[in-house]
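Onboarding guide, step 5: your first structure request.
Type a short instruction followed by the sequence, for example:

Predict the 3D structure of this protein.
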Amino acid sequence: MTVITTSRSTSEQQEVSKDDSMLKQKAMMAKHFDRLTSARENGEKVCSTFVPGNLNELIMCFDFANNLPEVNAIQNGLRKKSGSYVMEAEKLGHSEDVCTYVKSDVGMMAKGNLAPNGKPFPDPDLLLLSYTGCFTFMKWFELLREQYKCETIMLHTPYEGDGKITDNMREYMVKQLKEDVIPTLERVSGVKFDIDRLRENLRRSAKAEDDLVYVLQTGRNRPSPIDAYFGGIYYIGPIFGAYRGTDDAIDYYKTLREEVDGRLAAGQGPVTPDGVMETEKYRLVVEGPPNYTSFRDFWKMFYEEGAVVVASSYTKVGGVYDFGFRHDPDNPLETLADYCLGVYTNRSLPQRVDMLVNYVNEYEADGLLINSIKSCNSFSAGQLLIMREVEKRTGKPAAFVESDLVDPRYFSAANIKNRLESYFQMVDQKRDGSAKGAAA
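The system replies with structure tokens like these:
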């Protein structure tokens, strides 16, 4: 664990505790943005794609630098720049109801398109959309295509409505990869496709995925050595984005696993911004993305009450690995198809309910908390139904708070804190009732 000082004025300086793996992840992200912003001078071409269902292992085969618009929006949210970008997009005519990731991206482009390192992002040479259940992604890419006038590929992923992947679904996607995606990647990049290179990338992915799953499943322990929601945001960064399939990802997850094993052996809880969490009072499963503009304040509302998130759905948005999926180098195109088909946003409501029920039971959680995001229909649709169903099937209390992704106007700290305190009281009452029932 490392203690760092924030870059505020002297009177406001605070010590912030971070895992060494968090600092490593931060350095990796800085390296990623440096590569992107120097792509032109280094003779590299740029592909823009999205996190759920992204084909990073394939993109790497053609030497593209990978730009992920949601990651840029998240970074701007954490750096408290997204609010002005969102308002800029609304001045340009975008509705208040539009996904704030989109508006942050549009506003950023209107204000110079600067990366976190202060340098301008290069225009993409290619837009690659692996459509995985979020209709907003399609409209977002239409806006980007209008802006950049570049080549666009859409890999259409059938919706997993019946809760299973069929041979027809897989074959349909492999056909698209062979006939449209790969030929276009070859033509734009000028690099010939090498399936053995793809196999090697997939082997590296599977190795890193093993360590990530190990880390996430340590949340079953008491106390949990991780926070699978707030801490999990750091954990998923490399594997959900431009580092999956690389040696850097393998090294990061090896380091993370060793770090978590150390806390596990010492009987320690997760590291929070204020140090190691000393007392685990509540164990929660959380559904929905976090708020990034007030990320630390949001997290603090949990750990000050002794609440740790032992499992979350959001850390599966870029891949549901803990239910068995691994990238398979022996079936390279088929495994890319299965990955896209199985991501969380492409799963049906019954599948999502089953997953959350499994987490509540297997991780011995006290209940489910939903953070409903105002502008994110992919996660928010059906959440009240999910909440009631999980509550009914587990017998554990569930609660609902509301915020937004990267729009600070929709984070009401007082309102959320009041709801959380009420929820923790509900958990206490449920425990007291169970204890009295057992005694009787």
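Each response can be followed by summary notes, for example: DSSP finds 16 helices and twelve strands in the chain.
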